[in-house]
Amino acid sequence: MREEVRQIQRTLEEQTYIADAAIATALYLSMTLGKPLLIEGPAGVGKTEIAKALSSALGTKLIRLQCYEGLDATTALYEWNYPKQLLHLKLEESSPTPEAEKEATIFSEAFLLKRPLLQAITEHENSPVLLIDEIDRSDEEFEAFLLEVLSDFQVTIPEIGTIKATHRPHVVLTSNRSRDLSDALRRRCLYHWIDYPSLEKELEIVRAKVPGIGDMLSQRLTQIMQATRTMSLSKIPGVAETLDWANALVALKATELNEEIIAETIGCFLKDENDIASFKGTRINAD
Amino acid sequence: MTDLDIERLVAFCRSLREHGLSVTPGEVVTAAAAAALQIIDTKDRAEVFLSLRNILTTSVDDFPVFENLFAAYWDQRPARIVEHQKQPTAPARATGGLAFFLEHWPAEIRSKAQPVNVPGASDTEARAEKDFAAFSDEELEEISRIARRMARRLAKSRSRRWRPVARGRRVNLRRSLRLSLKTGGELIELSYRERRPKRTKLFVICDVSGSMDIYSRLLLQFIYGLQNSFAKVESFVFATSLARITGELKGKTYQRALDRLSVNVRGWSGGTRIGASIASFNQQWLRRIDRRTVVIVLSDGWDTGEPEQLAAALSQLQQRAGRVIWLNPLLGGTGYQPLTRGMQAALPYINVFAPVHDLNSFRALEPHLEL
Questions:
Q1: CATH T-level assignment (fold) for domain B100-155+199-369
Q2: Domain locations in chain B as residue ranges
Q3: Considering only CB atoms, which chain B residues are within 8 Å of A35?
Q4: Which residue, among A8, A90, A92, A179, would best test binding to B if mutated, counting the most B CBs under 10 Å from its CB?
Q5: Most CB atoms within 10 A, among A92, A119, B53, B272?
């Protein structure tokens, strides 16, 4: 493994993010080649966490754009601050300033509300991490619009002109595969897939993130989680759920897992009535 | 390949492409540049593997092919690749007469509603639950009414996106401010905005094979109702091959639509090839399917084709569509289990699996159609 990749791995580990060689390589390539990184995987395996860990490792700002259906340019890129514009016009009503100048004033940067994408482009100190979260939730129109921004990191605002990024942001996109992304967007990005972690990796994650947990307890808990994922459930718990559960157990000062304590805390990792029923019906053998 | 040179890399990419991955020239250039610039250590197998996978694949579905081919190239081992599944070609249209059910559809017979013993027929008295097989003309009309009501609801539903309008209830500040500049910053004329109508499209694919005969006419009635009150419906029928009937169904009366159908659509027969029919649907129509499309398949799931083909075709369809609804008339019967091989293969790729055997089941459909 090359030194740079190992360096990334170490730095992420300092942020308590357990990174394997695959994810470290993906981040290294994304940063050196200047290409956005598309991360796919089931819910709760730490896709979003990567961007957070990366930004704190690099000591830069994390700018997050949460996608949803109907997300459009005015919420993702920029919007004019209308109340402020109106107020300004009212105050200037009786002033002899010529109209053209008034217009130029209210459509200047001072009246611009920067939304995440524009923020990422106009970050002047260093390259921020731009996290475009759950891109599969947005619609096709937004995807097309995003392609435009991601291809040359510049934005044209009719009233101001073209703004070009001085520091190209590190872009991380995440998707739960709830729908197919366009080929054009996939091509533009490097691709990485995160699956549920192995027992060893999950154990490492639990011990790093929940330091108060004992060796025995963390071992047992991780075994149960791994076994749970092999059941046919409607909502398979991710690492996020494992950590929730571990935290709950620590808060309850549990030292071992028995049926009683599992029943009390089952809501931490199973969020569906039927799943809970079928979990209770199965004797999990984690030895 | 114990070292990665450009020539080998290009050959590797070509072979990926031959095995169904879409590797673009741009991606090849990126990979080559990364190797040339020593961004990738071309002697380190693990590093080359991970990096090329990042660059050359675009989905986790590509991984198995990539891993096999990579091993073949790097270790110079023969590849263990299963032949990439070719798109099944649409079967030649069967010749030999019109569909059984069309021939048996003259108006005289339709008015004499005859109860037929159907698998899954419920014998309850309630009219709404009465099975299809025993429907009268008024009840057929009711199906049309339900279809029209659904279509109206669909046409009226609103998306989350906005569009400017002349009169509305919400002010469009951006435009209003622009307008106000004409009057020196005084807001005299207001501009408005409203939610854009949702652009839901509907694709209905109806099984008209022998086993569906008794249901087909009601389902067609339903499709006819949808087709004639909602612009964005495309309808298809299949038995052993697929036929588009959107044009045939448009018209003033149902009877006339049926007459046109019997003249224009040929090749309906007893057998069912659901997989092949959906695959040929995909070939022609998949590019029209997007997230705003609801695909409805009306079939009992008796397939004489290969279940793998059905699963592959449906999964392809489901990946593109907003929702795939499978309506199975047999599901209404008590004790029916979707155990046919075709149905079993299809289940993982269906978003909504619902019965359609009486008026109530039609009504229950309504919420599923809205995306």
A1: Rossmann fold (3.40.50)
A2: 6-75, 100-155+199-369, 161-196
A3: 30
A4: A179
A5: B272
